Structure to design on (576 residues):
């Protein structure tokens, strides 16, 4: 089950609200459970370089069913997944991408945010998800 | 001058309204005057393959300051721009991408639509532009 | 709903059987409803160049919910979709890619075959689908 | 000499058996001695992001005739192959890719596995190889 257009819109609106309240200028991307772009919004004066990062964060989160930042802890030099960023046409493994999970534990997609500090990016992404679901998957394997 | 977030939203809403009235399921992309993605919306059950086509149509229109379909007439076998689709990481040169031009003749971006016949795609794209400007540029060189 | 591992295996076995009976050496790819690779099999002595073609045919069929060859009729010079092959990291629009549709009209994925004439490719692809479903989608929009 | 279809199938079945016994959900790829995809299988609910990683691990192993994880030790910051992941359209240099070597010391291909911890990935990959050969190459230059 993929995130619907209506839910994607709600998630982006929720993220936007948080971005505005924190005075940040964000790119916000929502992808479906296969990683395909569902909706995207770039605030005025957001970094142009954040477009691709927001989309890649969302894809990273949905491709592995976890927040992008968790993968980043495992991909540091000397850690088990060092270099995973080279897969899948480029992964972004710092915070700001989180899965969208519904009440029944299905991952319907993910949201990715870029444009400020990674703490803010993550905060805004989670604010988006909270309007339509939760970020935490049940133990792998989840249902898709 | 780039299309603003607010204008991009208006353009997408205008396009959506037309898509709904024609019973089509579209991917709708708005890019700024540099071709960078500003906003995107995929209706439920739209073709997954249309995501990239909508974005590429918008980029094609803004990269050359004309509707994507006009370039397609020049890129047919034997015509002067034959093969132009190979440039810029892939152009889409059939109808559905149109520039967004303001009252003073500035091109602020473009909209690209994919998901139905090229006639419908073009119709929906133009409906989007009409909410915020016009599609026709003054004689080249225009002002960006 | 995506094609399951078990169904993908059945589809490949069905396609293989047909390939063997026609004396052809094929690459056979099954993708899920988002276009992600589910299973792949290359027969001994099949063309190496057919690996990518088989995968791209399957993706093309699932991205637009129709046999790849139908798109190819619309993408000829002078036709409405001329140049669509430049989208989505490369589409293959000649026959050999067909959707996999279940009893309820859901498209669960697609199969793509390459290695012989396009007629044979298409025949083998359809033999694969027939072991687990049908190739024909109900009128667009289908359910995914 | 390339891995045959029959051997590739055996290797995947061997890997699958190990994956099932360890309760993991894997993507399993077999490539020939030139790095071209021979067979692929994605278990239900395996990470979508693991498709590309499994294939890249197999390619990495065969391109350099050693387990992917060995290259990863040489590609850490300060080590001689730092950044090798940027070559060959993306290498994956953590464990889970191993060469397939026959009785006479010929490398016929490689297997790559992704979907769990790198220890599990490596275990499953080796279980696949063991059904048809060994993972260890004689001293370079080996025979291909």
């Amino acid at each position: 089950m993929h995130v619907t257009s209506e839910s994607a819109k709600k998630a982006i609106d929720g993220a936007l609200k948080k971005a505005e309240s924190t005075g940040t200028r964000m790119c916000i991307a929502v992808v479906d459970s296969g990683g395909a772009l569902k909706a995207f919004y770039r605030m005025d004066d957001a970094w142009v370089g954040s477009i691709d990062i927001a989309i890649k964060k969302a894809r990273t989160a949905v491709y592995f069913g976890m927040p992008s930042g968790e993968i980043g802890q495992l991909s540091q030099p000397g850690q088990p997944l060092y270099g995973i960023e080279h897969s899948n046409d480029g992964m972004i493994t710092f915070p700001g991408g989180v899965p969208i999970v519904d009440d029944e534990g299905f991952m319907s997609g993910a949201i990715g945010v870029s444009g400020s500090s990674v703490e803010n990016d993550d905060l805004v992404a989670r604010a988006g998800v909270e309007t339509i679901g939760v970020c935490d998957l049940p133990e792998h394997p989840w249902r898709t």
